[in-house]
Amino acid sequence: MNAFEFKPKLFSTLKNYSKASFSADVMAGIIVGIVALPLAIAFGIASGVSPEKGIITAIVAGLFVSLFGGSRVQIGGPTGAFIVIVYGIIQQYGESGLMIATLMAGVFLILLGIFHLGTIIKYIPYPIIVGFTSGIALTIFTTQIKDLFGLTIDKVPGDFISKWGVYIANFHTIDWWSTLVGVLSIFIIAITPKFSKKIPGSLIAIVLMTVMVFLLKKYAGIDSIATIGDRFNINSELPEVAVPGITWETIQSLISPAITIAILGAIESLLSATVADGIIGDKHNSNQELIGQGIANLVSPLVGGIPATGAIARTMTNINNGGRTPIAGIIHAIMLLLIFLFLMPLAQYIPMACLAGVLVIVSYNMSEWRSFKALMRNPKSDVGVLLVTFLLTVIFDLTIAIEVGLLIACLLFMRRMAESTQISVITDDLDPNKESDIELHEEHLVIPEKVEVYEINGPYFFGIANKFEEEMIRLGDRPKVRIIRMRKVPFIDSTGIHNLTNLCRMSQKEKITIVLSGVNDKVHATLEKAGFYELLGKENICSNINEALEKARELVKQ
Questions:
Q1: 369-374-375-379 Cα dihedral, nearest 10 degrees
Q2: pLDDT tens by residue, the chain, 558 residues
Q3: DSSP 446
Q4: Of 141, 186, 308, 474, which one's alpha carbon is 20 to 30 angstroms from that of 551?
Q5: Does 6 map to a domain?
Q6: Beta carbons of 81 and 264 less than 8 angstroms apart
Q7: How large is the C-alpha radius of gyration of the chain?
């Protein structure tokens, strides 16, 4: 492993930076800042914290991801994916628990980057990603039903099934004015892209619905529509840095949600960076990106923020509006800071039903229902992983879903690998024209009497190791020499070595000699390091089948 080099993308992009690039980045940053505003407020409230904490998170994450990340165009901030996990942590551990879990997640992300584990994230199976993303989308949608329809409910339960039970039982309390605001907000956001690509529909909906509700309250006397100001005291003062009291017991209790935040943040940020690469023709540094995400999540909770990651929608907005360097992300953070300092009090007039409409659209875009539908036509094992991850995310929580989904995926992978490795017994002649490790000038090679030739085609690892012994037992023969062809074995693990060692010892007791043929350099080095050749003898390791058969003839004569 090469030593990690701290090389934020910002440093390399500034080398040939121009006035034209700066102008493009400033314009993109301003637009992205405006786009991020309603989302940051909505994500903050939906996560169970005050609206200003959503904006603070967007400011901090936007700044530090751009300063220290590994992508030219990544925009960091709170995202819909974190709503479920953040809300759950606050319910169980309080905001202090969330702060500590986010700090721990920041450390984990930095360590992932330092130890070059950024590329490993891409090996998480696609059905798991779609499963938990779709599950999060359905959960977000579920959490918005109360505000969308203005239902009168004192306390909404935490779990999915109980939520819907309470909604159904209390649906007669529906407020039709709130419902109208919510439905109009969804309609405005849905149709805006047909008329404007620059101005986000969520911002238009919030401005129009806020004005409409203000007028309805002032001139029509309609006070049933809840606003942010009815639920929260808006504070536009910059927060003070606060370090939580951390104990070993707290770390132990929060290790699982912290790992979930780190994994989710790593997956989402690297997916966003990868998508961005395809559009701008660049290549991000995945390990540096995780370092940047980690630093952002270390700083965010210290100033009252929540977990953050790379936001795909805002990153795409940045690209579409001309942003090509991290300067755009820094400008976006500055824009949000100015709004926070001078316009935050106006947020108290935003209707809760309108924010619910914004999050309904967010959940729809997150649902990936087309990908979900397409995966349902895949092999049953993939469908099983998809459905299990989806249902666990919805019914239980994201932590359990990711853990169980990864476990099932790993087990299925092992089974597929084991099935892909074939063990065959060659009983007839060997044709040089069909064999890659036979000298072509040879005629058909005849396998001598009292000699058996076994071919292993695939990795010799713990999933296949016992298969070889089973094949031996099935044949039940007692030849004098067993040739094991390993020319198609790319690697061997500890279980494979243990199995091969037992086979040699068992064969020695039965007066049978084992000869290996066609062992590649990597497998050869592994066997030698493990001390296997002391048992077998280097003279019984042959480079190709010609040598192996010649060696077998000598042993049979003896």
A1: 160
A2: 455 678 899 999 998 899 999 999 999 999 899 889 999 999 999 999 999 999 999 999 999 999 999 999 999 999 988 988 899 899 889 999 999 999 999 999 999 999 988 877 667 788 888 888 898 889 989 999 999 999 999 888 878 899 999 999 999 999 999 999 999 999 999 999 888 777 788 889 999 999 999 999 999 999 999 999 998 888 888 888 888 888 899 999 999 999 989 988 998 899 889 889 988 989 999 999 999 999 999 999 999 999 999 998 899 889 988 999 999 999 999 999 999 999 888 899 999 999 999 999 989 988 889 999 999 998 888 898 899 889 988 988 777 877 787 788 778 777 777 777 777 777 555 555 555 555 544 455 778 888 888 888 888 876 665 666 666 666 656 788 989 999 888 988 888 888 888 888 888 888 889 999 988 888 888 888 888 888 888 888 888 888 888 899 898 887
A3: P
A4: 474
A5: no
A6: yes
A7: 31
- Which of 362, 392, 411 is the C-terminal boundary of a domain? 411
Asked whether residue 155 falls in the same domain as residue 303, the answer is: yes
Strands of the sheet with 422-426, listed across from one edge: 422-426, 451-457, 481-488, 513-517, 541-542
Residue with tokens 């997956």: 267
* DSSP code per residue over 472-489: HHHH----SEEEEEEEE-
8 A C-beta contact, residue 325 and residue 26:
no
User: In this structure, is residue 2 part of a structural domain?
Assistant: no
SS3 content of the chain, % helix, strand, coil (to 5): 65, 5, 25
Dihedral angle, C-alpha 451, 513, 520, 547, nearest 10 ° = -50
Is there a single domain that holds both residue 49 and residue 115?
A: yes
Q: Looking up tokens 């008329």, which residue turns up? A: 195
Range of the domain at 229: 18-411
Element (H, E) at 226: none
Q: How far apart are CA 164 and CA 156, in angstroms?
A: 9
CA 2, distance to chain mean position in Å, is 24
Distances (CA, A) of 290 to 84, 258, 549: 22, 15, 53
**Nearest residue to 251 (alpha-carbon basis) of 105, 39, 415, 56:** 105
